[in-house]
Amino acid sequence: MTVSIDYRTCPLCEATCGLEVTHEGEKVLRIRGDRDDVFSRGYICPKGSTLGKLDEDPDRLRTPLIKRDGAHVPASWEDAFELIESRLGPVIAEHGPNAVAVYLGNPNVHSMSGTLYPRVLLKMLGTKSIFTAATVDQMPKHVSSGLMFGHPDLIPVPDIDRTSYLLMLGANPYESNGSLATAPDWPGRLQAIRDRGGRVVVVDPRRTRTAAAADEHVFIRPGADALFLFAVVNVLFAEKLVGPGRLSDHIDGLDALATAVDSFTPDLVAAATGVGAERTREIARALARAESAAVYGRIGTHTAEFGTMASWMVDVLNVLTGNLDRPGGAMFPEAAHEQTRERRGFRLGRWQTRVSGIAEVRGELPVSALAEEMLEPGDGRIRALITIAGNPVLSTPASDRLDTALAGLDFMVSVDIYVNETTRHADVILPGASPLRRPHYDLAFNQLAVRNVANYSPALFPLPDGTPDEWQVLLRLGATLSGQGRDADLDTLDDGVFGMMVGSATANPASPIHGRDPQEIFNATNGGRGPERMLDLLVRTGPYGDGYGARTDGLSLQLLSESPHGIDLGPLRPRLPDALCTPSGMIELAPDRLVADVPRLLASVERVLNGRFLLIGRRHVRSNNSWMHNIDVLVKGKERCTLQISTVDAERIGLEPDGRAKVSSEAGALVVPVEISDDIMPGVVSLPHGWGHDLDGSAMSVASERPGVNTNRLSTGAMDPVSGNAILNGIAVDVVPA
After folding, report:
1. CA–CA separation, 589 vs 594, rounded Å?
2. How many whole angstroms separate alpha carbon 110 and alpha carbon 107?
3. Is the CB of residue 606 less than 8 Å from the CB of residue 724?
4. What is the CATH classification number for the domain harbouring 253?
5. Are 243 and 159 in the same domain?
């Protein structure tokens, strides 16, 4: 058999690295970084080289499973959908579509089908009981961006390739490969800032690998990022360092913002943050005086009590120092598939949860409320669940309670590649495709990239005979639940979905195909059916597209297919005010919803811990949340699921270097190996997330050998009231020797 080399983009994290895959037939021989990739230039992390092992994993599901007498057994696709129709149909008929919840896990945004087709399923089902991994991750950034810029996905990213000063909070891209700022080789890019005479400052409760490589690391108490950032903004006003530059005529609310931050002096917040007042002032002055600067806050700031407040201040600082929307500052990417957004503004709270009345954000409800919506009796109770590529039993708060709730559902369906800690509850599991057996284009992450690029990868290997594609599984599931029947013609349904996309584009005055004959566009679109046809339409009507003949040098799926190493569309460019979606057409510096939460933040200054520890999470470059722990080469070696604690704290409470600790909160308790380190702030302890592979019924043989503990058993389900995001950092815990 001939040995071949193909190129594709890694779909495992946000870095979008190019891969060179050497294979003999369907056997992967080697995967290394693609040195000719226009974005990654050969960079690769350990995860990317394991896609072949994931494809071959004997635990990966290849056929549907249905539960009989409490055990999963193989079934045909027909039998699986027949059971879904017979069991979920009556639930919807009697209790309505909201009785069926849908949970979308993180892997969906790494898949074209997982990004495009769940929205079709949700529309066909008609449920408002929608939950996703966003509310244990980045929802504060969507809310602050929506309120400030008018659209929740209009998110500025640090222009790290051109900045001279980077202030980074709650981010560890040496381990995570970056997040909400897509860039391969963060270590190399951060070193390049220093090589050109710039400065990198990391504010974090741990001296992470990223912090250790920076020019300066500043310890901060977990959950206090918003207080610190408010104080930095306070200094800018107090010392007359505010200078929005060319955006001065495009901002609204400057006076209201000054009033909102007036009380947050560096001296007032110093004890609460652990950052000295003078150090706060020095950072404010450095930001204001730098040739170019960017402030970047990530998951450590978002998964906290005041996550939206912190996210708001990150972009406020970029505006006030004149660094928003300019090279070297924080800029807005322009992806090849981006469509023109309307100036409708951003609304919160269009509906609420049944039990606690928690507001909808961005069309979804907080996953912290999912368990109570299942457990609390009464009209409107969630009685069934569909999970798509997610493991919320390990990845969401108050996980013991959620585990109990799943066991009591009337019916559950999962689309997943494993029987994991969540899908073990499912009555039907429909297998997803291996990443090497599906086409790939980063619909989510190209909109967050620090350089405008476009990479498309066709499926490397075919699906096994008789196995439907991922988009067909989701479309058939939607047809089954909407009453059209499990035997509905999928090609006709997909033509209908695509026809609506074409009709919307030709009716949009801002589209390059406005006024064209929809049937002409329909017939001219390449990609067959499914997500590739949709991608061709999006790219051809995007900012660099050929407009179906309007531009001879424009992009199309065909051109992307002919460019295996990607197409470089250039560095980020200024886009304001044209890209703003606020009704006023201005940057709203002081949105009412955010200003209203300022008194709550101010009151937190007086909070006393009474000797308890604050728990934070952490990442590792070989981990990917909970779903890459079944690959032996990624989990071997030194134990990673440990409790990190400072030397002074370990000595004070009597913990030994090779000992074990009991960690307890109001929600639960864990016993975990101890790792004593001076890289963590006294009063703080750290556990990685995504572990806890020791529950009966899961079928991940490698993961179960090194299960670790589930840190979400310690989370109470509390959330940031503005965004509904889970509070996973800064949880008060007690620690004693086990």
Report:
1. 10
2. 5
3. no
4. 3.40.228.10
5. yes
